[in-house]
Amino acid sequence: MDTEKTFVLTTPLYYVNDFPHMGSAYPTIAADVVARFQRLLGHRVLLITGTDEHGLKIQRSAESKELKPQEYCDGIVPSFLSLWKLLNIQYDRFIRTTDPRHEAIVKEFFQRVWEAGDIYQGQQKGWYCVSCEEFKEERDLLEGHHCPIHTNKEVEWRDEQNYFFRLSKYQSQLQELYQSRRDFIQPESRRNEVLNFVNQGLQDFSISRVNLDWGFAVPVDPKQTLYVWFDALLGYITALNEADAEPTLENALSKWMPINLHLIGKDILRFHAVYWPAMLMSANLPLPERVFGHGFLTKDNQKMGKTLGNTLDPVALVKTYGASSVRYYFLKEIEFGKDGDFNEVRFINVLNADLANDLGNLLNRTLNMVKKYCAGNVPSITKEDITDENPLKAIGLNLGKQVKNAYEALAFNQACESILSLVRAGNKFIDDQAPWTLYKQGQTQTLEQVLYAVLESVRLAAYLLSPIIPDISSDIYEQLGFKINFNQQIESSSAAPFAIHSTWGILSNEQKLGTPKPIFQRIELPKND
Length: 529
What we know:
The protein is elongated and about 90 Å long. The protein contains 19 helices and 16 strands. Helices cover 46% and strands 15% of the residues. It has helices spanning 22-40, 56-64, 69-86, 100-115, 171-180, 188-199, 228-233, 235-238, 249-253, 269-282, 314-321, 323-332, 344-373, 391-408, 412-433, 435-440, 444-465, 470-479, 498-501, and strands at residues 6-15, 44-52, 93-96, 119-129, 134-136, 156-165, 185-186, 205-206, 208-209, 217-218, 221-226, 261-265, 291-294, 297-299, 302-303, 340-342. The chain starts with 5 loop residues before the first strand and ends in a 28-residue tail after the last helix. Is required not only for elongation of protein synthesis but also for the initiation of all mRNA translation through initiator tRNA(fMet) aminoacylation. It catalyses: tRNA(Met) + L-methionine + ATP = L-methionyl-tRNA(Met) + AMP + diphosphate.
């Protein structure tokens, strides 16, 4: 077993009942940021994403297009792959639940749970939401038997003989898990939701369906089809297998387990924080370390939906404004874990203020002054030449640790705000110190100290922002004379470990500064019709 630290994280496996939307892009961007940050720490990272392709919802979507389910899925999956590329997502594994390798894992897992005595046959009666692929308690339904999540969809009554998983058997073990590992479910509001649900008493849940063709057959009863969630959750384990290895639970466990982080939407929290750990307990497999449920996105403070005509197309957004703009806004302006809103005017104002005016302007004006006053070379200054009382150094000395803590807590907005505090301080420092006046007065030493402090602050800000806006950070590092490209995967053996580059004062006069160029073009506000 490799002793080098690994970090495994997953996005949800996205339903292919339609093309990807901003709600799919949002957690995938967040996962990519976490993965990039973990790589900067020198860890071996496995970022898993993929698609959930079985179930009644997919079967009906295919039928509506007069396609076979596999044909339908094969037509939708490329749209996810192309969007991830557009958004600069560096995923390591893309798992499709229709992959034959996945079926082998599902069968082996089912056999383990079967032999543990946790699967039995029983009668399933209740209201079923096809969009959720879940039975609903009648008390939770809206007027007219509408689903509380898919409010424009009526649930369907089901009365059928199914196979069940003994979820109730694991109630006390789950409660002990939540008690002993308080950070297992995050944020705190999600944890409280799960505790309330579990404390009401857990009911066994159905893991098979009849009259459904699209899915894997139940190994002990080929007339029934495995329930989509029992199949889909196991996609995370299938993805742990190396491509050239036989897909077995043993091989999946050999290198990457346990999974460190599941990033999911709050609407599928119950499946990941209750059903999934109970299933793993039954199969005697390691539990994940953390399940984080993020909030929903709205547009102009309204829930997005086709019926309202206010959906947000991530492809159009990236093609109009660029990947860095989209990545930055959604992680800086929305507290991860809470619901958040997209407003185009605010989107443009934030980007212009933070990336063009503050960060871009600071780099550009400083490089131009270095070119004018120092012949385009990094001043011959060391960090020891600048006292700890220097306002930029005072912020920079603790910034790396502060931002590291924020990234680890998935507090991306806090990370951005902390980094921006240094950037804004840099612009104020230039205005206060007036290097142009120092030059006229012949105060060369002080001038060089000012310019070095600002250059180093820009570098530090770019490095710490690199998980979020790798394109822009790469441009800044190139202009500062570094060879590091944050668009390339940083490996643990790279010359860019976090411990070094998050330290204040690593710029040296060995760096050959590049030609100043804009790192972010200002965006014009949309014109009123």
